[in-house]
From TrEMBL:
One of its GO terms (molecular function) is thiosulfate-cyanide sulfurtransferase activity. Residues 20-128, 159-280 form the Rhodanese domain. InterPro entries: Rhodanese-like_dom, Rhodanese-like_dom_sf, Thiosulfate_sulfurtransferase, Thiosulphate_STrfase_CS. CDD domains: TST_Repeat_1 (cd01448), TST_Repeat_2 (cd01449). This is Sulfurtransferase.
Length: 281
């Protein structure tokens, strides 16, 4: 596929043949584990439940360094483990967890191309048996803030010509016609619309509808470059709560090789609720 960093992807066939590798840790990341992991998962896979495991239970934030370390221990992941992530929703949430792995310095992590969707289309085996996990010790790296954008970064970017923003939500969210996707009707912002100057390139335009795999390098390049999202720019991706934008962050940074890409996980629920923030429609 000629991706800039092809090593961040692994295909379903390779995962299937590598399940006996004790060094490799397969992890399913789900928004809805009751309709995913609990009904059946790849043999040996542990679960990271997006809502419970990767978000701080009190503050609207991702887990801190200590919480991430505890999560790794519970999943039997060591600092040198080879980790394969896959999940539901065409790997939305797997991409978010990949971003957090990189944020805390875990080097050897990949995404299974196509996620649950492709595995099931190929009628590969699942199990409902949960693996017995041997807890590890784990020490994460300090957060890599170069991968994350905050509210003040976005406000500064409004006046910087070398910074571009990618709004990966649906066109109706971008225009303000709706303030949340139909499947998440309670997660609204006070204002609809988008950050001024942002380009609307929905996350799903980066994947093949048929099996959830990523499009080719050339197809992806044509998806972003004509709208001014080019590798010479500082790119900030956002959506509603940061999960869809992490998918686009992954595409731009690893598949296309853009040197400076950040995920704004505050996203529209922060921007659209803040007093004084400009909103475009």
């Amino acid at each position: 596929m000629n991706y800039a960093k092809p090593e961040v992807l692994i295909d379903t066939e390779s995962v299937s043949k590598n399940l006996q590798n004790e060094k490799a840790k397969v992890v399913e990341v789900d928004y809805d584990p009751e309709n995913g992991y609990r009904k059946g998962h790849i043999n040996g896979a542990t679960l990271i439940w997006w809502k419970r495991d990767i978000n701080d239970p009190v503050t609207r934030d991702i887990v801190n360094k200590k919480q991430f370390e505890e999560l790794m221990k519970r999943n039997g992941i060591a600092e040198n483990s080879e980790v394969v992530l896959y999940g539901d929703f065409n790997n939305w949430f797997a991409a978010f967890v990949f971003w957090i792995f990189k944020y805390y310095g875990h080097e050897n992590v990949r995404i299974m191309n196509g996620g649950r969707k492709k595995w099931e289309l190929e009628k590969r085996l699942y199990t409902t048996e949960e693996p017995k996990v041997i807890q590890t010790s784990y020490v994460a790296q300090p957060p890599n803030e170069g991968l994350r954008a905050y509210l003040f970064d976005v406000k500064r970017a409004l006046d910087k010509k070398d910074t571009v923003m990618v709004d990966v939500r649906s066109p109706k969210e971008f225009t303000g016609e709706i303030t949340a996707p139909p499947e998440y009707p309670m997660e609204h912002a006070q204002r609809g619309g988008h950050i001024p100057g942002a380009q609307n390139i929905p996350w799903a335009t980066a994947v093949n509808d048929a099996d959830g795999t990523f499009k080719t390098y050339e197809e992806l390049k044509q998806n972003y470059a004509p709208k001014g999202i080019t590798p010479d720019k500082d790119v900030i991706c956002y959506c509603r709560i940061g999960e869809r934008s992490s998918h686009t962050w992954f595409v731009l940074k690893y598949l296309l090789g853009y040197p400076q890409v950040r995920n704004y996980d505050g996203s529209w629920t922060e921007w659209g609720n803040m007093i004084g923030n400009p909103v475009a429609k």
